[in-house]
Specification:
Blueprint: H1 2-7, H2 15-29, E1 46-54, E2 57-58, E3 62-68, E4 72-77, E5 83-88, E6 91-99, E7 137-140, E8 145-147, E9 150-152
Parallel strand pairs: 1-8, 1-9
Antiparallel strand pairs: 1-2, 1-5, 3-4, 3-6, 6-7
Length: 153
């Protein structure tokens, strides 16, 4: 077991790169209509839209995610002006907002063999990037057009 840990390349990847890779995988697979922990998919019978701001400015080039272990996980990209809209199952959701670094990161190795870290983004504080630490939550009502606007501080 120790030999595996020592040779594990993943443990040597900088945190920002790990996050960028995770976003790429989520984008490739897709986010909407996530399944539940029971292997069944909750019906998306509600609409949810809103705007995400940070210190009075729209957050763009990021993902907003909604998680509830009982019904699944949904997510969508924040568009121009920090706006988003998606079809989702009703329920209570923890919310995270994860900045994307698309077209901003040169993933090539430097001359010393090190992978550069992704640029820092301060528009989304770290605590909002993971549902477990985010203070954000929303209650989505069945059959309704729900609005959830966020101002990160």
């Amino acid at each position: 077991m120790k030999r595996i840990r020592e040779s594990c390349v993943v443990g040597k990847i900088p945190h920002c790169l790990s996050v960028a890779i995770a976003f790429a995988l989520v984008s490739a697979v897709g986010c909407g209509g996530g399944g539940s922990t029971e292997g069944t998919q909750a019906k998306t019978t509600a609409k949810l839209s809103g705007t995400v701001m940070s210190k009075g400015k729209p957050v763009e080039n990021a993902l907003i995610n909604f998680e509830n272990p009982a019904v699944g996980a949904w997510g969508t990209k924040l568009e121009a002006g920090g706006k988003y809209s998606l079809d989702i199952a009703p329920g209570e959701f923890k919310v995270s907002i994860v900045p994307s670094f698309e077209a901003q990161v040169d993933m090539s190795m430097s001359s010393d063999g090190q992978i550069p870290e992704a640029p820092k983004r301060d528009d989304v504080p770290e605590k909002f990037r993971v549902a477990g630490t985010s203070e954000l939550s929303v209650s989505v009502k069945d059959g309704e057009e729900n609005t959830f606007d966020v101002d990160l501080k």
